[in-house]
Amino acid sequence: MKTEKEKMLVGALYNALDPELSGERQKARLLLNKLNDLSLTPEQRIPIVSKLIPHAGKNVCIQPPFYCDYGYNIFVGDDVFFNFNCVVLDVMTVTIGSRTLIGPGVQIYAATHPLNFKERAAGLEYAKPVIIGEDVWIGGGAIICPGVTIGHRAVIGAGSVVTRDVPPDVVVAGNPCKIIRKLES
C-alpha cells in the first residue's frame, strides 16, 4: 500500500494531514521563517534557498516574503527571479525554466481538491504538476492553476488567472487569460 506522500507525488488522492507530510511542511516552514527574515542580505539567503529548494539552479533570487508547502518539489533553472510575496503550493512538481521573472504576489498552485464533496469532507486532496518554460515573465498578482504548462518566452499579464496551457511566444491576460498577441521569437 502506498504512503500518503507516495500518493501525493503521483497525483492520487491523499490525506494532507498525514504525520509524515505534516512534519515535512513544518520543516519547510522553519526554513521559510529564516528565509523571510528581512534582516538577512541576499547572500545570507543563498544557503537557506539551497536547503529549502534543493533543485534550484544558479543565481535564483527570492525577495521575501516567500511561501511554499515543501520546497523539494520545486525545480528552478538558473537566473530565476521571484519578487515579493510569492506562493508556490508544491505538493507535486512545479518546474520553472531559466531566466523566468515572477512578479510580486504571484501564486502557483499544484494543489487542488476533488469536486466530490464527500472526498473533500474526508480531507482528501490531489495535485497536478505545473510547468513554466524558460524566459517567461509572469506579471504581478497572476495565479497559475494546477496542471498548467506555460511555453517558453510567454508573457502572463498582471492579475491573470491561467487555467489552461499557454503556448510559447504569446502574451496572455485576463480571467481566465486569453491570448492577446503573438510575440516574435
Would you give an account of this structure?
- The protein is α/β, with parallel strands linked by helices.
- It has one domain (4-182): 3 Solenoid (UDP N-Acetylglucosamine Acyltransferase, domain 1).
- The chain has four helices and 20 strands.
- It has helices at residues 4-10, 19-35, 42-52, 117-121, and strands spanning 14-15, 55-56, 61-62, 66-68, 74-76, 81-82, 86-89, 94-96, 101-102, 107-109, 111-112, 124-127, 130-132, 137-138, 143-144, 149-150, 155-156, 161-162, 170-174, 177-182.
- It has a seven-stranded mixed beta sheet with strand order 3-6-9-14-17-19-20. A five-stranded parallel beta sheet has the order 2-5-8-13-16, with no helix packed on it.
- The chain is globular.
- Across the major sheet, the strand order is 3-6-9-14-17-19-20
Number of helices: 4
How many domain units? 1
Overall geometric form: globular
Largest sheet entry = 7 strands, mixed
Q: Over the alpha carbons, how many angstroms does the gyration radius reach? A: 16 Å
